[in-house]
């Protein structure tokens, strides 16, 4: 569906509208798939946590091995999901077929799906049940969307709100995807501005900043995973 909706937009770099359309494909995919992953994992973790309470009470295993197992078991199937999605959609949208750009795309897509899955798990760990976890998680989805840097570019966000852009996980993913795909192109737009010059001026995206962006993605995965593990160990919502 995503591939057919955004067919061949990635190969068009003639006007500012072309770039915005290609960015829209990344923005929509990151937002939709990430929220879908976070929402889908919540009822699963909630049910398994009930079993964990029983097993911990019986002395079968402690909290941290359970939490780390939950964290590690998500990685293989999310990686498979990322590869299947990226190969199909990357080709249909028509992004530049180079090893570096494709690997960057897969990396940022994988990290976004993984940290948002851990985000969904974390909201379950800090709440009594999946219903409350869904309410808490959903309360941030709109904020993530608003401060993603696509609806309102970072340079145009009021200074007193710009801190939330840097604290928004999805904003980092969109930054990485757009900068890795288009941030090094010197093609001249119809506005007599280069592609990378337009992205730098209007969105604040720099190709040279990809290293720190990748580091932040690793940090987000570790952060949400650690909070999940700590809360599973520290909180007990079981009622007798």
From TrEMBL:
Topology term for the membrane: Multi-pass membrane protein
Any one annotated GO CC term: plasma membrane
Keyword check for Ubl conjugation: no
GO molecular function: ABC-type transporter activity
Residue stretches making up the ABC-2 type transporter transmembrane domain: 1-182
Keywords (A to Z) from UniProt: Membrane, Transmembrane, Transmembrane helix, Transport
Record carries keyword Signal: no
Protein name, UniProt field: ABC-2 type transporter
Protein's organism: Helianthus annuus (Common sunflower)
Phylogenetic classification of the source organism: Eukaryota, Viridiplantae, Streptophyta, Embryophyta, Tracheophyta
